[in-house]
Amino acid sequence: MRGCCQGEYRCYLLAESPPPRLRSLKRGLEFAKLRSVDSGQARGAVYYDEEGNLHEQLARVVVICANGIGTPRLLLNSKSKLFHDGLANSSGLVGRGCMLHAGRGVRGIFSECMDGYLHSGDAPFYSQQFHESNAKRGFARGHSVGHECALGRQSSRRDAKPLSPYHSCHRHWEDLPDEDNRVELDFQAKDSNSVPAPRVVYSFSENTRRMQQHGAQSAREFLQAAGATEIHDEEAYPWTSHFTGTARMGNSPKTSVVNAWNQAHDVPNLFMADGSFFRDRCRSGADTNHWSIGLALRRRNLAAQGRMEVRD
Ligand SMILES: Cc1cc2nc3c(=O)[nH]c(=O)nc-3n(C[C@H](O)[C@H](O)[C@H](O)COP(=O)(O)OP(=O)(O)OC[C@H]3O[C@@H](n4cnc5c(N)ncnc54)[C@H](O)[C@@H]3O)c2cc1C
Fold this sequence. Notes:
13 strands; disordered N terminus
């Protein structure tokens, strides 16, 4: 799941993608909003060129993959007479229910070298012992554990300051989709084309805090059993790499934004193929990329079969 020095777990193009076949694709455009027509279909996306001139790219089918922050920003900024709260937002849930991997580490200091240099990346050992929900623990959902061993030096330079070898247990917590945790538009902060910036409003829920306590305790037990001479709790942090849940998937247009085909309930020719549609945090702290790629490939295959406009 992790640990590739090429970084390909973050880059589908590097790892798996065949050479691009979409010859007419314009790259590097930043879209300001999507436009729709009176029948309720999306008609294309609007962007500014480097000189600040406005253009529109028309499309029969629109697929957004701007991820958990960019996608709701684009939708919320795409208001019209028909979609006055933003495109595909009749449920009011676009941007709502933002879920992160709220992390927390516990660090153990060891007297012997931890052989960290033998591993690429930072998680030579990964456990999902606590990833299923278990009511006895006093919280819903679960967390997974990654372990990181330090080299024993601040860097690989010969003159680097020696550090005590340490082993860090860091955990990914699975948030609940709390609607107060959200992405919204910030009308005070705008980009150079006066497009409102996204603002992320997030705090740990009581459930996430309980999960953090449980995870930290089990990490301390692990490090103690492994022979750590000192154990230090690190501060909990909202991990800002995995943003999901802000255009959630579901069967009902009242309680979700897209259907099981990643298709907007409100706009039949609009699809979302990124982390924003996840309803849960990919099963307790699993990384997001593989899920996004898998579902995007499913969408691509349907498109290739001419089934892109399939409805439930
Ligand atoms: C530091 C870090 C470490 C990570 N580590 C891992 C890991 O180890 N394993 C793992 O599985 N995942 C990891 N992830 C998560 C992984 O990178 C994401 O899940 C994945 O990139 C999501 O792919 P995506 O295509 O949906 O979105 P992104 O890769 O975020 O791509 C969205 C694209 O949309 C563009 N965009 C946004 N708004 C607009 C707009 N208005 N107009 C035009 N373009 C727009 C953005 O510029 C961006 O290029 C990590 C993420 C970070 C930040």
